Amino acid sequence: MNRKLAGVALALAMVLIMGQSLKAQYNPRARLQPVGLGVSPTFEGWYQNPNGTYTLSFGYINRNTQEVLTIPPGTSNWVDGGSVDQGQPTYFTPRRSYGVFTVTVPADFGREDRVRWTLEANGEQYSIPGGLIDSYETDNLYARAIDRYPPVLVLEEGGKESRGPNGTRVGPVAAKVANPLTLNVRAWDEQGRGVTLRWYKYRGPGDVTFEKGVLPIEEGNTEAATTAFFSEPGEYVLYVRADHSDMRVSAAGLEQCCWTNGYISISVSR
Question: Would you say the pTM of this structure is higher than 0.90?
Answer without folding.
Answer: no
